[in-house]
Every structure is written in C-alpha cells, then in structure tokens.
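Re: your question from the hallway

Yes, I did run it. Sequences:
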Amino acid sequence: MNDFAGRSPPLPHRPWPRRIVDADTWSALAVGLGEERWILSGLWGDEGAVHMAVLDRGTSELAVATLECPDGRFPSVARHHAPAHRLERTIGDLFGFDPVDGLDDRPWLDHGRWTLRHPLSGRSELPAALGRYPFLTAEGEGLHQIPVGPVHAGIIEPGHFRFIANGETVVRLEQRLGYTHKGVEALIKGASLEQAARLAGRTSGDSTVGYAIAFTRASEAALGVEVPPRAHWLRALMAELERIANHFGDIGAVCNDAAFALMHAYCGALRERVLRLAEAVFGHRLMMDRVVPGGVALDVDAAGDAAIRELIAHLRKTFPRLVSLYDNTASLQDRTVGTGTLSHALARQYGCGGFVGRASGRNFDARRAIGYPPYDRLDFDVPVLGEGDVNARLWVRIREVEQSMRLIVQLLDFMPQGDIRIDLQIGAGEAGEGMALVEGFRGDLLCWLRLDAEGRVERCHLRDPSWFQWPLLEAAIDGNIVADFPLCNKSFNCSYSGHDL
Amino acid sequence: MRETLIRALVRPPLTDPAPDALDPELAAFAAQLETASKARLGRSLAIRHVDAGSCNACELELHALGNVYYDLERFGLKFVASPRHADILLVTGPVTLNMREALERTYIAMPAPKWVIAAGACACDGGIFAGSYACAGGVATVLPVDLRVPGCPPSPSTLLKALLALMTSESGAADQNAAKNFTMRGLYL
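Structure:
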C-alpha cells in the first residue's frame, strides 16, 4: 500500500510515511477506499492542504497522503467512499475547502453560531447565516417525524436525532451533531505540549487516558524520542482501568435501558470501585493529566500495586455472577438479542473500530494490530463476535473486561523498573510530524500533529472512533422500533464531544 | 437472579454516610436560598441537567451520584426529564455557541422559583475552553448563576455537598452540621 507515488514532505514524519500526491493519485486512493482495498482512518484539513490516513487491511500499516490545494478545492473522497462524508463536511466547516463533486454540501459542525467562519483557515471570516438545516426526507402514507434533542431526557451529551417512523417502526434516522463543538483543534494550535496534552485529554472525558496516550505518542514520534519502558507500562495500566470502568458503566446502562435496574446498580458499584481505586493510586478518578508528554506524571508504589491486585481479585469474584445474571435473564435478552443489528459489510466498509466493529465480525484492535508497547509483550485475546446485535456488543464488552483484568495482572507482574518520565528537550530546534493510533475503550483513536521548532503544536488533528460508528447507528436502527433506540444507542455509546471536537 | 437478590438482602448496604462538611460558599448559598425556597419546595428538589458542551467527564460524575455509594435520591434530590418539573438547572460545559439557545430555552421552560448551578471548571468560567470561537465561556455569560461547583470534573462527593446545600433546612445554615442533621432526618422521617 505504501507504494503510491508522491514526494516526501519537508519535515520528518514518524512512524509511518507521509507522501504529497497529485490530484490523480488522490482520486485513485479514494477509488481504492471505495473498493475496500484500504480503510479510511482519517481525513482532515491543514493550511492549504488536505490529508488522508489510510490503513492497510492486511498489514495494518498506516500511511498519510497529502494533496496540496491552495485554491481550496480537492477531489471529493466521499464520492467514492461514503464514510468520508462527515469528515469532508467538517473540512468545509473548519477550513472553507470545497470537495469537488462532493455529494453533500450541507454544513456539519458549523451551525452558523460561531464568532468566526472557517476558524482554522487562518482568515478571519465573519459568520454567515446558514439558514434552516435540510434534513433528509422520507415520503409515504402514515410516516411521521420524531425530533429528539439536543437536550435529552437523561444525563447525556447533546445531539439531535430526527426519526421518521411508520407507527413504531423506524424508517429513517438522521443524526445532527456538532452541538458540543468547542474548537479543540484551534485551541491546541500554538499551545505548548503540556497545555495541548491537557486539551487532548479533554476531547472526550470518558477516554481521557486514551486521548492522552494518543497525543503523547504522536508528539514523542514527532520529536523522535522514546519514553522509558516503565512509562509505557503505566500508561497501559491506566488505559486498561479506564476500559473496564467504562465497560462496567455501559453494561449496566444497556441493561437499564431495558428497565433491568438491578444490573445497572451492580455494575455501577463495580465502576465506582474502579474510579475510587484510580483516585487512590493515581490521584484522579478519571486519571486526567496523568499521562504527560515524555512519560507519566506519577508512579505506582507497593501500596498501589496491592490495591490494584485486591480490586482485580474482587472483580474476578463478583463480575462472573453479574455475567450469569445477564445470561440467565430471558426477559432482558428478549430485548437485546436481534436488536439493532449492524451488518459485517458496513462494519468492514466503515473500518468501524471498538466493540461495535468487533461485534460485527471486524477483527481489529490497535493494541494487537499496531502492537504498540507494552502490548507487544503481553498475552491477551481480542474477542470478536458475528451477530452484530445489542447482545453481541454487550458480550464483546464482557469478554474485554475479562481480557483487561488479565492484562492488568500481567502489567503489575512484569512491569519493568526505572524512570517514568524523560525530559523532552523542547525547543531543540527540529520541527517534525508524528502520528499515533491507540485503542481507547471505544475503539481506535487517531492523533496526527506537527510541532514547530520551539516544540509548540502547529497543527493537531484528533479523530475519535465515533466518526466511523455514528453513521452505522443510523443503519443499525433501521426497521427497529423507536422504543429500542435507547438500547441501540447505548450499545454503540458513541462520543458526542470526541466527535464534535 | 434469586441468588443475587438473597445475597443483597443479607449484605450491609454499600452506601456512604452523608457528607458532613459544608464549605463557606455553599453554606452562604444555602442561607440565601432559605427564605425563597423552603416554604414552597419543602425537602424535595428536582434537577434538570443540561450538557452545554462538556467533554462528558462531568456527566460521568453526575451519573455516579445515582450509584449505590452516593444514592442521591435518599436526600430527596432527583434528576428529572422535563424542565417543567425542575427547580434546579444544573449546567455542565463551557456553553458552546451551538448549545446556547437550547440552554436558554430549557431555563425559560422552567417554572419559578428556579436556581442555576454551574458544575465543573468549564461551566464556572469556560475552563480550558475559554476564549474559543465556539464557546460563550461559562454559564454566567448566558444565565444568572446561583452556585458554582469547581473541579475538572467535580467529584461526586463535591457535587453531593453542593446539592445538599440546597436542602439545608435550619435557618442561617452557616452551622456546619446543618446539612448532616437534615439529611439524617430526611432519611428516617
């Protein structure tokens, strides 16, 4: 895959190659994506250019293709490859670029309310009224619309869902997102590494460790440095604790959406145990700002080690009882089995990551496929199921909790001694570009960045796994009843903030 | 299922005792609320939460208030789905401009008397997102804020203390034990 023609960029790009290509090669790559020769892993704008990250289906090697577009026009990728639609609309919103022959020219994140238009373009354009947002339609006798959000009934992030239903059956769901757009990428621009890492860690609060690891790995790649082995292991320890805490929350919440509050109460207690442990060992319940450029902020001592082992012992005793509670409650499974089925073909086409993809037969986990440290030294399975329904997504989570518990014990058993942080020699004079693909609890997170010679972030792009999961929720709900939407939605648990940036 | 329920019956509850310390700001707020709210609302407050562009960390901790350790509802506090049922508007996030109108409309939809809590660093003053082209920067730029709860995110125990300040029944309420006394009675009455 890496043999597409193009010239090398002026700055070093690590660890995967970046090539500057011409419009024909760009279009050929887009066609290749459409033919499923590669997976689209990211599509984002830069000053006078667009970048596309493509992942090889076989080798899991990544490469970035760049098309310079000083006139702001580039051949549409979405024309050949549907998963690029929202990414392309976002490039339009943030940079004002125009995808030539694009199929959807509606704005996406821009609702016409920002103080600037095209905020990353470098020009200061005043906002223009965007008018009414045209939703897609469906016509027929007996169809009606149900608008939901952006303020939802519970303690949930904001987003708008437009259902078109025939009686109880959903005929079409269209999402409208962007409500939580905070301008993260603009705030990161020009920030110091420390400040940028804090911002990256607040892209999506439930994945703060995952984002911090993605950001720091990308920045360390750009600087061409390797952090001490113990730092990698401590990062992974936090990442696995984050994963099980979120999975407990999700397993309980999915059952709660089927009105099975018992499971929710028990899973909530387990989640709280994990967060309290994180507070005791790492000093923050969600472990924010504990992964820092150059390593980690603090070490785990003998008492912390013992506390983590004690928690794992407790979870190994209690969690199987909850699993059998789920497994033996037929009335609950009546709601989850066969509900919200996502086809293998769509999961494959979208390169859908995380438990959503792995419940629909897509065997991809960045910890295994990329094999970044310390996962290259650890023994774990990647659970994959084929049914693609709510039940399968729940079981993948259950199996992942079990694997993460295995990983945590291995991380404690074999953690190397030594330093936990290095001085990054910021301002050593060399600019560079780096990227990382990291497995957060929700799926693979992409971070791409360019550092200037003073070690400040010149451009940083963060791509949440939800970009390739949200559109599939629209497909999975098709033909289900409206009342099952909360179940389907929770079983996907896509990020609003991570997506909206 | 039967086994799970029986085990739950014989095991002591996991629930933490009520927090006992009120910090001065919360106590002062409780005192100010005193005259306005108690006669009409009694010991029950309904909370409508709006995420005005938070990163979702605050929501995770608000969710935790409902778990068995914090058990928010034992204090007569509950999250409600409709602003029409709410006494308190609890706002998280830096108020993104894309959410501003939805937040304002939620506030307008609430019946008076009503109070606004800004929960978390972003809601207090925009936090790390202050100054962005996409954020208003703090709830106070949009709505009258009665109480600010700091933290990134505020822990469930901090949130619980803030909410209990609203429930303090003794007049003056500067007494540090006020919230504790009330919640004990609230539990057993």
